[in-house]
Amino acid sequence: MVENSNPLNKYFRQxxxxxxxxxxxxxxxxxIETTQTGELAVMPMTAKDEIKFKTPDAxxxxxxxxxxxxxxxxxxxNAWAMPSxxxxxxxxxxxxxxxxxxxxxxxxxxxxxxxxxxxxxxQETLTTILGATYNDTFLYENMEIKTRPLSYAEFTASxxxxxxxxxxxxxxxxxxxxxEEKIREFTATxxxx
Length: 193
Hints:
This protein is α+β, with helices and mostly antiparallel strands and 193 residues long. Helices cover 43% and strands 15% of the residues.
């Protein structure tokens, strides 16, 4: 048996937790390399991963999310093809592997200016997601309807389209802008997408 003599081995990134995906989908090997147990090893984020989450354009188009998922869960080869519910579970697991099981969220009490910190237990949140039952078939007036979750690529494309429409709607409804300014802004917004 040959022993690896690299003195830095103990400092390499190691899996912190293992998760299974809530959709229960079986993925082709080019999307996810499955293990014997069906669980995926989750490693903490690197500094490079954290920088990706601070890049607005990469967050908006979904590229940062996909790259971080694939970096922290190396068995996932193509996060774009995963259902968004599996991406949510992966992101929660990555957060837990990096920062621990709790997350502090600043909230403002509705109707007041009082700000409080809410402590969210990520393990409970992940357990809730993993424990949910997802039915892809339901009956409606003697019809059997089969559904499928959106892939992360479809979800991102839909979110970008909604963002574009919202931005265009705000330009149209802006009473402070002249028609020429609205046309310029409308053209600039359309060229972004």
